[in-house]
């Protein structure tokens, strides 16, 4: 597939990609041009595949790949110090590198954009992203790290917070420069390991940190223990119950009365509160009740004291934004879910769950109605089959997206001199005089 990427050459790992969720076919006749902004175009179809924010171009504008791996568009505007009009650091796909600020305005996405890492006012969390057509359904959080605020307090109204991976082996959370409000230690924290570091939202929905040890990416942090299989979102989607510790799954509503389930009842019989016009729930739904389940992320859910299972269920049934509720007979706590039932685990029979499941018939009707159902080198690449385009600031290449090449091959294909891949800064491709206004790169 064809994409624009900033690649760590020794490992061929893409630190940044322009369109990771919608790459073009690798056979596309692509053109990368610069006229105050970068534009990746399918020449045959005369279609823009990707572009930076539109800016008013002026002589001297340039695109530069910095030694931090940050791709910037700089405008001099007649002054000695250039202004940054766009930078790749503001648009991280699934990875942030050390020195890169991660703000509440950005997200790390999984390759399919179904999962994301977000930064809140005093925490960062991992979420299951609702589809665009979900009509306001909330994202389900499955991991949360709160700021300890030991050295600095986060003050309400004191400005946005941001996080940054520091060279000493930790991501820190700040509201302003100075002592951090939070430090999350990696395994190499304060051990004198100076190397390129990155945090990546992995394909298995986990968040991991690595450092480059000169030969490979060494694991330095894992948000969720890999043995806790039920704490990671399964590939089966919603309405699944996970059994610990095996991680085996079964459907939430694949049985009848007498085996732990209540028979699924059409919403028109159970409750027509939301009617068939959609509402926040989405129209008709089935009501399913099951003993012996609970949310694995219950500490992250809204909870209320309830007098009974019936009381807990009623709070959800008469609320069109509620998709499920689980009651604990032992504690009297009612956990409320404002998203379709996910992250459920098998529990004891003191837990009772009530869940709303979208009617497939209603969903199909709606679909027919609207027609939508430290030390390394970096280089700017077009992911696809490799071919040198120009000897300017950075090259546009085509490589196989999921094929890892050796460091020797990467250096040879980029035409780079063998001036070392030992610890040191990224090669600043501005040494090629960067990319001046109107330069273009073609296949």
TrEMBL record:
Positions of transmembrane segments: none
* Database matches in InterPro entries: Bulb-type_lectin_dom, Bulb-type_lectin_dom_sf, Pan_app
Which SUPFAM superfamilies has this protein been placed in?
alpha-D-mannose-specific plant lectins (SSF51110)
Q: Which UniProt keywords apply?
A: Receptor
Q: What is its main location?
A: membrane
Annotated Gene Ontology cellular component terms: membrane
Q: Which reaction does it catalyse?
A: L-threonyl-[protein] + ATP = O-phospho-L-threonyl-[protein] + ADP + H(+); L-seryl-[protein] + ATP = O-phospho-L-seryl-[protein] + ADP + H(+)
**Stated name of the protein:** non-specific serine/threonine protein kinase
Biological classification of the source: Eukaryota, Viridiplantae, Streptophyta, Embryophyta, Tracheophyta
């Amino acid at each position: 597939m064809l994409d624009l990427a900033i690649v760590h050459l020794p490992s061929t790992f893409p630190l940044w990609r322009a369109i990771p969720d919608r790459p073009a076919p690798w056979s596309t006749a692509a053109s990368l041009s610069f006229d105050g902004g970068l534009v990746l175009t399918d020449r045959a179809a005369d279609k823009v595949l990707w572009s930076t924010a539109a800016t008013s171009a002026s002589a001297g504008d340039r695109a530069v790949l910095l030694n931090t791996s940050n791709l910037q568009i700089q405008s001099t505007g007649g002054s000695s110090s250039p202004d940054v009009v766009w930078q790749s650091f503001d648009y991280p796909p699934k990875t942030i590198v050390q020195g890169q600020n991660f703000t509440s305005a950005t997200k790390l996405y999984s390759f399919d954009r179904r999962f994301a890492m977000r930064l809140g006012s005093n925490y960062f969390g991992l979420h299951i992203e609702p589809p665009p057509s979900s009509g306001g359904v909330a994202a389900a959080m499955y991991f949360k790290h709160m700021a300890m605020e030991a050295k600095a307090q986060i003050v309400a109204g004191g400005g946005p917070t941001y996080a940054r991976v520091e060279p000493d082996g930790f991501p820190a959370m700040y509201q302003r420069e100075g002592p951090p409000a939070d430090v999350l230690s990696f395994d190499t924290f304060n051990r004198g390991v100076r190397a390129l570091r990155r945090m990546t939202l992995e394909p298995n929905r986990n968040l991991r940190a690595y450092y480059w040890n000169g030969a490979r990416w060494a694991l330095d942090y894992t948000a969720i223990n890999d043995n806790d299989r039920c704490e990671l979102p399964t590939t089966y989607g919603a309405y699944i119950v996970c059994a610990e510790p095996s991680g085996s799954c079964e459907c939430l509503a694949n049985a009848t009365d007498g085996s732990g389930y209540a028979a699924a009842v059409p919403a028109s019989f159970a409750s027509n509160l939301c009617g068939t016009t959609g509402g926040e729930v989405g129209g008709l739904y089935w009501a399913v009740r099951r003993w012996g389940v609970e949310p694995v992320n219950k500490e992250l859910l809204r909870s209320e004291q309830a007098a009974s299972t019936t009381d807990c269920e009623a709070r959800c049934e008469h609320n069109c934004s509620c998709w499920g509720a689980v009651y604990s007979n032992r504690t009297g706590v009612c956990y409320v879910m404002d998203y379709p039932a996910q992250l459920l685990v098998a529990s004891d029979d003191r837990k009772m769950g009530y869940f709303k499941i979208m009617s497939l018939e209603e969903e199909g009707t709606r679909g027919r109605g609207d027609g939508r159902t430290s030390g390394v080198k970096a280089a700017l690449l077009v992911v696809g089959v490799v071919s040198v385009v120009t000897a300017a600031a950075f090259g546009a290449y085509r490589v196989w997206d999921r094929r890892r090449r050796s460091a020797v091959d990467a250096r040879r294909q980029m035409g780079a001199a063998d001036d070392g891949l030992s610890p040191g800064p990224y090669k600043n491709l501005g040494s090629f005089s960067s990319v001046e206004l109107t330069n273009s790169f073609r296949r």
